C-alpha cells in the first residue's frame, strides 16, 4: 500500500472514530434526559394514583410462564444456548456458523469457545469505549459488549510486553473496543467480535487492523449504536 493510500486509510479511521465519539456523546445526553423524564413520571404517578399492590404469587407465576415460553428466563441454567461451529476464512478469521443466543441471565455461563463470541450473557455490559483492563473480566459482561458492536482484544502471558503496549495504544484510541488478559485461549493474542474471532501471535500482524476496521460496529452487530459506557468496569 502506498504512502498516500496509508494516509487516506488513517484519515478515514480517525474520522470514523470521531463520528463514533460524537454519536456516543449524543446518546449519553439522550439517555440522561430519558432517565430524568422517567423519574419525574414515576414520582407523579405515585402522588396522583397511589401505589397499587398486585398479587405477587399469581403475577410471579404468570411472568415465569411467559419467560419460559419465550426463552428469556433470567434464572436459566449455565448453558450459553449456542449451537454450531467455527469456519475459518482465508484471512484467518473464524466465523461461528449456527445459533448464538442473546438471553440475559444472572448466572455464570458455560461457553463452548474461549473467549466467547456470543451467547446468553449478563444484563450489564462491560464498558468498552476504548477501555483497557489490566485484570481478567467476566465473560458474561464482555459478551454483552460484543452484542453492542465492540471488539474484545485479549492476550495471554505468552504475548510480549511490547505487543501488549502496542495493543493498548490501539484500543485506547478506538471507541467500541476493550482489552483484557485472558489465559484460557488458544493464541497469545485474540480479537473477538460477535460471531467472529481472530488469533495472532504479534500485534504487528496486519490482521489486527483489518479485524478492527471490519468488526468495530460492523455488520455483525446485533445492537448497532448501543452504548459502550454506563455499564460495569470489572
From TrEMBL:
Polar residues: bias regions: 70-82
Protein keywords: Membrane, Transmembrane, Transmembrane helix
Disordered: region residues: 1-27, 62-92
Transmembrane intervals: 33-54
Entry annotated with the keyword Transmembrane helix: yes
Protein name: DUF3105 domain-containing protein
Regions of compositional bias (Basic and acidic residues) in chain numbering: 11-27
Biased composition range(s): Low complexity: 1-10
Xref: Pfam families: DUF3105
Highest taxon listed in the record's lineage: Bacteria
Organism annotation: Streptomyces caeni
InterPro entries with a match to the protein in the record: DUF3105
Amino acid at each position: 500500500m502506498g504512502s498516500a493510500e496509508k494516509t487516506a486509510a488513517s484519515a478515514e479511521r480517525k474520522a470514523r472514530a470521531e463520528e463514533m465519539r460524537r454519536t456516543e456523546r449524543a446518546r449519553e445526553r439522550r439517555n440522561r434526559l430519558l432517565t430524568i423524564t422517567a423519574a419525574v413520571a414515576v414520582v407523579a404517578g405515585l402522588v396522583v394514583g397511589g401505589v397499587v399492590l398486585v398479587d405477587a404469587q399469581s403475577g410471579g407465576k404468570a411472568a415465569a410462564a411467559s419467560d419460559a415460553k419465550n426463552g428469556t428466563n433470567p434464572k436459566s441454567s449455565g448453558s450459553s444456548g449456542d449451537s454450531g461451529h467455527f469456519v475459518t476464512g482465508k484471512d484467518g478469521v473464524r466465523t461461528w456458523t449456527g445459533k448464538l443466543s442473546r438471553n440475559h441471565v444472572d448466572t455464570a455461563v458455560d461457553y463452548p469457545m474461549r473467549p466467547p463470541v456470543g451467547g446468553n450473557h449478563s444484563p450489564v455490559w462491560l464498558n468498552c469505549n476504548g477501555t483497557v483492563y489490566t485484570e481478567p473480566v467476566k465473560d458474561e459482561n464482555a459478551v454483552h459488549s460484543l452484542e453492542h458492536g465492540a471488539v474484545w482484544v485479549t492476550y495471554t502471558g505468552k504475548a510480549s510486553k511490547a505487543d501488549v503496549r502496542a495493543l493498548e495504544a490501539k484500543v485506547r484510541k478506538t471507541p467500541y473496543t476493550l482489552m483484557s488478559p485472558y489465559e484460557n485461549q488458544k493464541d497469545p493474542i485474540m480479537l473477538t467480535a460477535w460471531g467472529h474471532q481472530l488469533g495472532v501471535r504479534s500485534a504487528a500482524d496486519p490482521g489486527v487492523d483489518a479485524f478492527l476496521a471490519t468488526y468495530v460496529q460492523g455488520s455483525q452487530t446485533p445492537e448497532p449504536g448501543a452504548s459502550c459506557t454506563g455499564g460495569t468496569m470489572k
